Amino acid sequence: MNSTFKYKTIKDLNDGIVPVDLLCEYMRNPVGLNTVNPRFSWHVLSDERGQYQTAYRIVVASSKEKLEADIGDIWDTGKVESSKCTNIVFEGCPLISRQLCFWKVRIWDRYLNESAFSVCSRFEMGLLQQEDWRAVWIGSPVFGAEAPLFRKTFTIGKKVARARVYISGLGYYELHINGRKVGDRVLDPAWTDYGKRVLYAAYAVEEYLKQGSNVIGIMLGAGWYGKAYRNNVHAVTQLLLQMELEFEDGTAAYILTGPESGWKVHSNGPVTFSSIYDGESYDARLEIDGWDLAEPESYLEEDGKSEWLDPLWMEPPGGRMESQMMEPIKVIKVIKPISLSNPKPGVQVYDLSQNIAGWVKLQVSGPRSTKIILKYAELLYEDGTVNQENLRTAKAMDTYTLKGVGLEVYEPHFTFHGFRYVQVEGFPGEASMDAVTGRFVRSSVEQAGRFHCSHALLNKIQENVVWTEANNLHGVPSDCPQRDERLAWLNDMTVRAEEAVYNFNLAALYTKWQKDIADTQGAVTGAIADTAPFHRYGRRPADPVCSSYLIVPWLMYLHYGDQRILEEHYEGFKKWMSYLGAHSDGYIINYSCIGDWASPRTESESGSLGGGAVSAKTPGKLMSTGFYYYNAVLLTKIARLLGKPEDARFYEELSGFIKKAFNDIFFNSQTCQYATGSQASNVFPLYLGLVPKGNEKAVMDNIVASVMEENNGHLTTGNICTKYIMEVLAEAGRMDIAYLLATQKTYPSWGYMLSRGATTIWERWEYLSVGDECEMASHNHPMYGSISAWFYKMLGGINVDPEGPGFERIVIKPYIPKELEFATASVKTMRGLVSSKWEKSKDLLEIQVVIPFNSRAKVYIPFIFSFTETEIKEGNNTLWKHGKSSYKTEELFIDGHTSDYLIIQTGSGSYCFTVAPICGN
Ligand code: RAM
After folding, report:
1. pLDDT by residue (tens digit) across 851-861?
2. What is the pLDDT of residues 770-781, one digit of tens each?
3. Phi/psi of residue 689, each to 5°?
4. Which of 81, 83, 101 is nearest to 92 (CA)?
5. Angle formed at CA 674 by CA 668 and CA 675, multiple of 5 degrees
6. Out of 2.40.160.20, 1.10.10.10, 2.60.120.260, 3.40.190.170, which CATH number does the structure's domain 329-443 have?
7. Domains 133-323 and 329-443 agree in fold
8. Is 489 close to ligand 1, i.e. is its CB under 6 Å away?
9. pLDDT tens per residue, range 153-208
10. Is 748 exposed, middle or buried (0-12, 13-18, 19+ CB in 10 A)?
């Protein structure tokens, strides 16, 4: 290789360059893998410029010892010349259920030097075949049993080599072995349409077992399977458990739920009521001491009669059993209240100072039978008591009845709430600040992104978005965590998902949710539903704005380099497109329900769906048809990618027809307005690239006029076009207007929400808190959080490049508003950390960029001072002066310019660019 770089010794390289963060199906050391073709990923930490991978070798072995000896008896790729480091598909010996594998990887770098091997990682297969399940579902024989306790005693007389529990409990289970809760998952398994797919968890449980008598104890709760399931049909909670023991002498044993298997069930446990929406009631007087312990067992038969009955054998819920391959829901953080008030005698209100999802932990001592009520709310009335009006029918209330023994500690098991305030009623004596602590509960996905800038208001919006997004991740991306809804709406996700993948690592959660959507697809019509799992609200067919069905997997491809999700859902996409096509007249979709939803009240139709959330100004059919076009464009790309040229041609042609029909119907070439000329009507076609060539500026001018002249510097858009207006303004060179909207403080704006004390993002632009207006008044709703993607992409400048998905190629292109002094953004990608930071003063702009190992970037350096009289440097090297470019090395070279930007190509590493006006000579 003709390199300008000094050759480094293997030792130098080995010290720094080694694959880290080994992922298998996006998880670290997963137990219970679903697929026989798992995918491997890693990245390398290195700050060296222009470094990349030229080859890799993956070794997969059946034991740690073999792996250490470099014996890949399951798979050894040998040296593969490839720069691929994400989602490499396993092609070794066929994998079977339960198989435990060890793997490691080494790479070769740009100098063809070999790295050391990574540390050893593991993956373990789950139960791949339905026939692997020997256990049978069981349930309580007592009608209406709220949270039955199951118990099974067994004896271990030999040394255990390996012990696994595969478990599913509907709606939720809590697994104990020998008196200890197993693991730290809560609200498990995640919600699915149980008639289609049921998730199970796989646990390694050796450490919980002992020689002699052992007990498995399980409490079930209704969760989404209870009263809330399928429009109030009361499903009976049920349990499936398979424990597999392998002993050191090579023998094995199973502990299975099923008929006549020695399980006992008690139907009067301490949880006397549980509901996702309404909360939980816990009567500590009903606790059964030692229910999950082996000894003594005598109490089971007190007085010759026992409440521990034989369980019933239950019909399976119908869905395929599938391992839950995503981050489980956990208590993520403990939040101490900042204040405690006493608005009425016997009533205390705690303020966590942050709107969260989860519950509180209560610590109390007092007389037996004292009943404490905890009421959760996002809002307060003026008198300081909690206002639950915007929760609609959700009672959001936990109750705890004391047993009267010492300090009692309680937190709910099978419910969650969305709240900032908790009102405590009936507390014995004086409640202290320590009596209540907030528990922030969500899917334990990693936060991936950070954004910060010199404007406090924007930072606060970003903080609120991160909270709101996080508050709405509970195995599905829900719309809100507090009222009688909490559903994963596809229309919201159409615009929310991009913000979400910048802020969090959602690869596994979205893989699961995409299947939830597929599960809603009608076998006959191909129609998907508005919500997935399809439940309670929304309808099938979905509103055409539900393009998240295609957009989410496309984002999975762009952000995580995931092509498999596109392959797996491709046929489904086509069916949905055919459905839409069948409901179009001359390529105009002929139905709409939601459209550009929840715009400011002045723009929406009073009395319409959702408490008047349908736009009065932006035609629903314009939105529907726009998304029909968007889908066609995406499908063209996807078909091309998947090697289906005929399909690609078909969808490309289709997009052309839709474009023409769209403009014929909605575009007025005289006024350059679309439809009514509402902001959304003009923004959406601009965003989609539908505007006939040459008219873009005029359409943009109309948008600007609407913002500035008709609305005094405010937007009028709903949930969908609020994302798009910010992007088209920036891209069309009107960052000034976009920035004005982002920093606007008066209604309607994000700043207005903040001025009303918001710590999360609202569902509507209005502050709604009482009476009828509360029908749609969530204060914790991620859809308007889409602005956070704009922070990353436009202010921070971090963008994916479709030419190199998964951040193999990165575009750094900051749009720099006059008023902002600095902005910094970073994203932890599959290939490592990408960051971009700029800071400007009167006569200097500095841009620092970090590109991970094995990635390349196109960096756009803005000519903020002038095009010609500017000097652009990287470090000490001049790249551009007096309108002329110079400089070229292998890891950094100029790749052209526009009138606004100098375009630079870089390899990996850190770069510091400066832009300064040339003064004087
Ligand atoms: C409401 C919620 C949800 C949404 C649907 C259409 O129930 O606001 O987020 O977009 O309506």
Report:
1. 999 999 999 99
2. 998 898 999 999
3. 75, 30
4. 101
5. 95
6. 2.60.120.260
7. yes
8. yes
9. 999 999 999 999 999 999 999 999 999 999 999 999 999 999 999 999 999 999 99
10. buried
State the DSSP string of 278-311.
TEEEEEGGG--TTTTSSS--GGGGGGG--S-BPP
Residues with a known catalytic role: 485, 763
Domain ranges for the chain: 10-125, 133-323, 329-443, 488-736, 808-917
How many A from CA of 879 to the centre of ligand 1?
A: 50
DSSP string, 73-127: SSEE---EE----SSEEP-SSPP-TT-EEEEEEEEEETT-PBPPPPPPEEEEE--
Return the amino acid letter for 760.
T
CB atoms within 10 A of CB 824: 17
The mean pLDDT value of the chain amounts to 95
Q: Are 476 and 513 in contact (CB under 8 A)?
A: yes
Q: What is the DSSP string of 737-804?
A: HHHHHHH--SSSSHHHHHHTT-SS--SSSS---SGGGGGG--SS-GGGGGHHHHIIIIII-EEE-TTS
488-736 is classed in which CATH architecture?
Alpha/alpha barrel (1.50)
Q: Are 365 and 342 in contact (CB under 8 A)?
A: no
Does 10-125 carry CATH code 2.60.40.10?
yes
677 vs 719: CA distance, rounded Å: 18
How do residues 346-370 score in pLDDT, each as one tens digit? 999 999 999 999 999 999 999 999 9
pLDDT for 650 beyond 60: yes
CB 596 less than 6 A from any atom of ligand 1: no
Find the 289 Cα to ligand 1 centroid distance in Å. 45
The reported pLDDT for the residue numbered 300 is: 62
Residue 597 beta carbon below 6 angstroms from any ligand 1 atom = yes
Q: How far is the CA of 486 from the centre of ligand 1 (A)?
A: 10
3-state secondary structure at position 419: strand
* pLDDT computed for residue 8 by the predictor: 42
pLDDT at 915: 97
- Terminal-to-terminal C-alpha distance of the chain: 43
Angstrom distance (rounded) from CA 790 to CA 788: 5
224 C-alpha to ligand 1 centroid (Å): 19
Question: What residue type is assigned to position 244 of the chain?
Answer: E
- Contact 492 CB / ligand 1 (< 6 Å): yes
Q: What is the pTM of this model?
A: 0.97
What is the average pLDDT across 627-633?
A: 98
Distance CA 617, CA 603 (A): 6
Ligand 1, atom 11: closest residue by C-alpha: 610
- Single out the residue of 62, 93, 92, 57 nearest to residue 78, CA to CA: 57
CA 658 to chain CA centroid, nearest Å: 32
Q: Does domain 808-917 have CATH number 2.60.420.10?
A: yes
Domain at 133-323, CATH homologous superfamily: Galactose-binding domain-like (2.60.120.260)
Nearest residue CA, atom 9 of ligand 1? 479
Q: Is 472 in the pocket of ligand 1 (CB under 6 A)?
A: no
Distance 395 CA to ligand 1 centre (A): 20
Residue 532 amino acid letter: A
- Closest protein CA for atom 2 of ligand 1: 479
421 membership: H or E segment, kind and range = strand 417-425
Instruction: Say if ligand 1 is within 6 A of residue 292 CB.
Output: no
Q: How far apart are CA 438 and CA 388, in angstroms?
A: 18
- Atom in ligand 1 nearest the alpha carbon of residue 719: 10
